[in-house]
Design a protein that fits this description.
The complex is a heterotrimer. Helix content of chain A is 63%, strand content 0%. Chain A is mostly helical. Chain B is globular, with a radius of gyration of 21 Å. The model of chain B has no long low-confidence stretch (mean pLDDT 87). By secondary structure, chain C is mostly helical. Chain C has one domain. Chain C is built from 13 helices and no strands. Classes of the chains: A mainly alpha, B mainly alpha, C mainly alpha. The interface between A and C is large, with 66 and 80 residues.
Chain lengths: 123, 460, 359
């Protein structure tokens, strides 16, 4: 299936985005026009099991979550690097394969390091 | 190319060595790795090479620059004895590893052929230095310094990247030699305006890294806040690599536009000289004074760059070496003294010569060299730089520089006065033998290069 | 012509109605209950009643909330997942965007979901919502690694990022020859045989295991049990859904089911032969030809849609079955599973897939 790829190939994606927005706008308009609007102080409070809300909700979060976020950045970038390789690797042959092995080796070395450092210890 | 590969591999190896039980193996291993890299660095001696699809370029000069960086790194790492015992928060393997990785960035900055590599190199070096700056995790000032450096550095790198993009827009290439060719075909007033905007932004980014005025405001706080050993590290390596990169950029691709950028760079040079030297006078902390001194030395190096004569490269090279050596020994003494006195101020050095004549001598040589007194490497360095300016015929620049060095003598001598002529309660400082050897080598080199500068100059 | 867009738009809404009803009935069956029985025969109209109820509800914005973040978050989540459908093919002749980076686009657009969830959690300014969204982000972000790697295994086998191209390779219309187990050495050409034998899971048998990894990762991506920690109603009330009401909540709910559908489709396309029939041609029994039709005709399109929707529907049923069978994981178990089990396995399988292709 050899075919030309044009920027217009992306048009359906934008149509789909438009459809989604259209759906949202319609339903929001409907719900706003037929739904009630009754505010009260108690009703507008943040929900906390029925008791009055205590303190700020935006409390510090365990640093583990941030480590996961950083790890994700690393790994996802590596995975993204592999996509173009995966599409073309047959034409790159064994040399390309060895290069990817090297790349993965480095990645795995880093992965092992991360595990040894206990970054992924959540217990 | 070989040093880059080696350093990357060694960096990983060091990280993994950190898992082994005995932490004592780390320092010798790192030193060994640095030594191996230093030797491997000169494999291509007397050849000119292009590597990785013309991404990296190397000739003798770039190899000597890399050599200076590696040598300074070797000395600084050798002086790190001691931070292994800083408690469980310390991560020696990580610090050594990051140092090795940062050298990869430095070497890339020195021998880039493609501007992308320059960017990658700057990032590798900077990010490592941000981390090292904040490595004293429980110290608020260290944290502050790291954050400050990171935020400003990130902006500077961003501006630099914008500059590269504009230059690409103007010339259609990232490759140094191509850019030079394309610029060469047009007169200076026919160039695309994008090129000038890009060049300016690129310069801003790089000048930030070498802490030239008016982009120097981060320097004192960061140098002061960082652990002393890493201050020594960044003041030598970043400066050398930064100036090598600047020289490569200006001489390699933009030499034909010198008339255009000369005025800008000359102004920055004067500003840097004045800002560095004048502010340094008012400091009470020796460490902070060294930070300002590093700014002023950036100014002297900029003179050679601004003049851009045939000899500029060798003068930048020699000056960087002289500066690196003296800085390493100054910080080496400071580390020992501040460990004893828990202070970085001039007062801490009071009476150093009485009980510790060796340290006082090392300090004296280093200060004389930084001030540019004859018989030291620093003097020869300044001499070459000033000769460049004279050749270019910019006498006014020369006058400013000489006045600046006169001011410099004042603050460099203050610490010597404290060490030799003031009374103090400094006890004898025990120096580890290895530490002593490093200090001896550095001091000897400073004097030898002051007497026989040709030893290095004939290499290029 | 991207015929699939209107079809998918209807399908997404239809899917919610059908699968919510199904989910309630299946869970009732698994737990030996009856499920909804009041509205309509066997409770068939329950969902319609629920829809009318939701649309009439008040749209409450808590006073403490970050108003714009709070209001926009459901839109971001919904639009992101909705847009993902734009690249899916439905039959040999019905396809959406022909962009040749379909798989890549899907991965990207699914990631945008995370931003919406974080907006919802942070914007609500509610402890449960924030905790839920942080958990959701950590989980989605972590499982994107094995998900990306498992999709990579397919990409390496098919050498394409275009979902329609991947579909064609698994069908009897493939213009590259398909051999038994993808091995040329076997010398058995299955190109004209088609059916289940040319599906990706059999073109490269290691993809069978990869599909399991893919399935687990997509469960986590869709925040489905046993990976529903972000919502964990017994501890977090509703996670990032807590403060939402009325139609905004309905949008979040819709997105969850749309996500289930999306990953079910994706799994079917990548691993289970897309729109091609599972029956192979055996000698004179042209089962594959009979159940495929020819491309471009109504028969061809309807068969394609039928097979693909059935495969996706089956996957959704399994998702529900899993939900009502397994208890919720703890967060440390979740991370353990992702980083220390799925990711290394996926990496090894990726290498195996690459070598398999080179053989």
């Amino acid at each position: 299936m050899e075919k030309m790829h044009l920027p217009s190939d992306f048009l359906p994606i934008f149509i789909q985005l438009g459809l989604a927005l259209g759906f949202i706008i319609t339903t929001m308009l409907v719900t706003h026009s037929i739904g009630p609007k009754r505010n009260s102080k108690l009703k507008d409070e943040a929900f906390e099991c029925g008791i009055p809300a205590e303190g700020d909700a935006r409390t510090p979060i365990s640093v583990k979550y941030f480590l996961i976020a950083i790890l994700f950045v690393l790994f996802d970038v590596e995975v993204i690097f592999m996509y173009p390789w995966a599409v073309n690797f047959k034409s790159l042959g064994w040399a390309g394969f060895v290069e990817m092995l090297l790349f993965m080796g480095l990645l795995l070395a880093g992965f092992y390091y991360v595990i040894r450092k206990g970054v992924l210890k959540w217990e | 190319m070989l040093p880059i590969v080696l350093l990357s591999v060694f960096g990983i190896v060091v990280l993994f060595l950190g898992f082994s039980k005995s932490k004592n193996i780390l320092l010798p291993a790192t030193l060994l790795f640095l030594l191996v890299t230093l030797i491997a660095n000169f494999v291509d001696w007397n050849h000119q090479y292009l590597y990785f699809n013309d991404m990296l370029w190397g000739n003798n000069a770039s190899m000597v620059f890399s050599g200076i960086v590696l040598l300074s790194a070797f000395f600084v790492v050798a002086l790190t004895r001691g931070f292994e015992q800083e408690g469980e928060a310390a991560q020696p393997a990580e610090y050594y590893g990051i140092m090795l990785f940062s050298l990869v960035g430095a070497i890339m900055m020195i021998s880039y052929e493609n501007l992308i590599i320059l960017f990658v190199g700057v990032e590798i070096l900077s990010v490592s230095i941000y981390i090292l700056t904040g490595s004293d995790k429980r110290n608020l000032r260290s944290n502050e310094a790291a954050l400050k450096y990171f935020l400003m550095g990130a902006f500077a790198t961003g501006i630099m990247l914008f500059g590269m993009a504009l230059m690409y827009g103007a010339t259609g290439s990232f490759v140094i030699s191509d850019i030079s060719e394309i610029i060469g075909t047009r007169a200076w007033n026919e160039q695309s305006q994008l090129l000038y905007a890009g060049l300016l932004m690129l310069l801003v980014g790089l000048l930030f890294k070498v802490s030239a005025a008016p982009f120097h405001f981060w320097t004192p706080d960061v140098y002061d806040g960082a652990p002393t050993i890493f201050t020594a590290y960044m003041s030598t390596i970043v400066k050398t690599a930064g100036f090598a990169a600047l020289y490569r950029l200006l001489a390699g691709s933009l030499a034909s536009l010198q008339d255009y950028w000369f005025a800008t760079l000359a102004t920055i040079t004067v500003l840097t000289l004045l800002a560095g030297n004048v502010t340094a006078v008012y400091q009470t902390s020796f460490k902070r004074m060294l930070a300002y001194s590093s700014i002023s030395h950036a100014g002297y190096l900029l003179i050679a760059l601004t003049s851009l004569t045939a000899k500029s490269q060798s003068s930048i090279l020699f000056y960087s070496l002289a500066y690196s050596l003296s800085t390493v020994s100054a910080f080496g003494v400071l580390i020992l003294v501040s460990q004893q006195q828990a202070s970085n101020n001039y007062d801490a050095f009071n009476g150093l010569a009485k009980k510790n004549p060796f340290l006082a001598f090392v300090l004296a040589v280093s200060m004389l060299s930084l001030a540019g007194i004859p018989l030291t490497a620093g003097f020869m360095g300044k001499l070459f730089v000033f000769t460049d300016a004279a050749q270019k015929g910019t006498i006014w620049l020369l006058v400013v520089a000489i006045l600046a060095s006169a001011i410099g003598i004042y603050y460099y001598f203050r610490v010597l006065i404290a060490a030799y002529f003031k009374e103090g309660d400094l006890a004898t400082i025990r120096i580890a033998p290895f530490y002593k050897v490093v200090l001896i080598i550095v001091t000897t080199l400073t004097i030898v290069l002051g007497l026989f500068p040709d030893l290095v100059l004939q290499l290029v | 012509m991207p015929t699939t867009l209107p079809i998918f738009s209807v399908l997404i809404l239809l899917n919610v109605v059908v699968s919510v009803y199904l989910e309630r009935k299946i869970s009732a069956f698994i737990q030996d209950r009856l499920g909804p029985m009041e509205v309509g025969k066997w409770g068939l109209l329950q969902l319609v009643a629920d829809l009318f109820k939701l649309i009439q509800k008040e749209d409450i914005v808590p006073a403490a909330a970050d108003r714009w973040l709070f209001l926009l978050a459901p839109f971001v989540i919904f639009v992101a997942i909705f847009a993902g459908f734009a690249v899916l093919p439905l039959s040999p002749d019905w396809f959406g965007s022909t962009a040749n980076v379909g798989v890549f686009f899907l991965m990207t657009v699914i990631s945008v979901d995370v931003i919406g969830i974080l907006m919802a959690g942070w914007g609500s300014n509610n402890k449960y919502a924030l905790l839920g969204s942080v958990r959701a982000v950590a989980q989605i972000v972590s499982y994107e690694v094995p998900l990306g790697l498992s999709i990579l295994c397919v990409v390496v086998t098919c050498q394409s990022l275009d979902l329609q191209e991947i579909s064609f390779q698994q069908s009897i219309f493939s213009n590259t020859p398909n051999y038994l187990f993808g091995l040329k050495a076997t010398g058995i050409d299955l190109t004209q045989t088609g059916g289940i034998l040319t599906w990706n899971i059999l073109r490269n048998p290691s993809l069978l295991i990869v599909y399991v990894i893919f399935f687990i990762a997509t469960l986590a991506e869709a925040n489905r049990a046993p990976f529903d920690l972000p919502e964990g109603e017994s501890e977090l009330i509703g996670g990032f859904n807590t403060e939402y009401s009325g139609m905004r909540w309905a949008l979040l709910f819709l997105s969850e089911y749309a996500m289930m559908l999306l990953v079910a489709f994706l799994g079917a396309i990548l691993f289970l032969g897309s729109w091609s029939s599972p029956f192979p041609n055996v000698g004179a029994l042209r089962l594959a030809d009979w159940t495929t039709g020819s491309p471009g005709t109504w028969a061809g399109n309807l068969w394609g849609v039928f097979w693909l929707v059935s495969k996706a529907g089956a996957a959704i049923l399994v998702q529900m079955w899993v939900r009502w069978t397994f208890p919720r994981l703890r967060i440390d178990q979740l991370m353990y599973l992702c980083w220390k089990v799925l990711t290394p396995f996926a990496l090894v399988l990726f290498m195996i897939s690459a070598i398999w292709k080179l053989l």
